[in-house]
# Entry
Amino acid sequence: MKSLLHLAILLAGLLVLSNVATAQKFPISEPMGGKPFGSSVKKLGNGVYVFRWWVYRNFFIVTDEGVIVTDPMNPKAARILQHEIRKITDKPVRYVVYSHNHHDHISGGIIFKSEGAKFIGHENVKKELGDHPSPVTPLPDITFKDRYTLSLGDRKVKLE
# Structure
């Protein structure tokens, strides 16, 4: 019993030390090279863009009929994302795709719900969000089990 206690204390100490070392390496006060809550957009290809906000990333696709957004982060980041999209196109955000159910990655969906966007996610995402609801995280309107192909304008996006 004493050896289990010593092992638990040792593991707890190692955990604390690893967190301290990580915190010193990546201070929260200056994320992403000293730009707190900095953001950027980079074009990856024909109508495909990556959006960075702080340590988060997502992408959006501009089509001739509207925009597809993935994981809209949180409301603050989503407002910035919305502004960045408007610099590129006046087309509305038609779809928001959730890759998973973590609120810190998708709670910004409320920003695009007000534009009339439809939300897409795996059936398990809808179940988890239903079990742990948030007023700023819309439930998926469209769900799928194995695969779903989203078509918008001249683009098809395969979700698996």
